[in-house]
Amino acid sequence: MMKHLTKDLVSYPFLRRGNYQLKVSVLKNMSVVVVGNHLMDIDKFFVKHFGNLEQAADFIEFTLLKDEYDGGH
Predict the structure, then answer these.
(1) 63, burial (CB in 10 Å: exposed 0-12, middle 13-18, buried 19+)
(2) Whole-angstrom Cα distance, residue 29 to residue 44?
(3) Of 24, 28, 51, 62, which is most buried by a Cβ count within 10 Å?
(4) Pairwise CA distance, residues 36 & 24, whole Å
(5) Which residues does 38 contact at the CB level (< 8 Å), separation at least 6?
(6) Can you give the pTM of this predicted structure?
(7) Is residue 48 packed enough to be buried (19+ CB in 10 Å), middle (13-18) or exposed (0-12)?
């Protein structure tokens, strides 16, 4: 069972954008999990699930823009 699940799961290397370190995993091109860790504020850690890649990308962009607008803190 585990072998079958892992062939449908794609987990990308950590990505740094702005003040965030992000990890994105996609299951069967339908389910996306994004883990985000703010590098300067430990209270800005999140794990979010999305139904498609567009929603995940929009959330990431919104989070980065909001952080930039707030001055990175």
Answers:
(1) buried
(2) 27
(3) 24
(4) 9
(5) 19, 20, 44, 45, 67
(6) 0.82
(7) middle
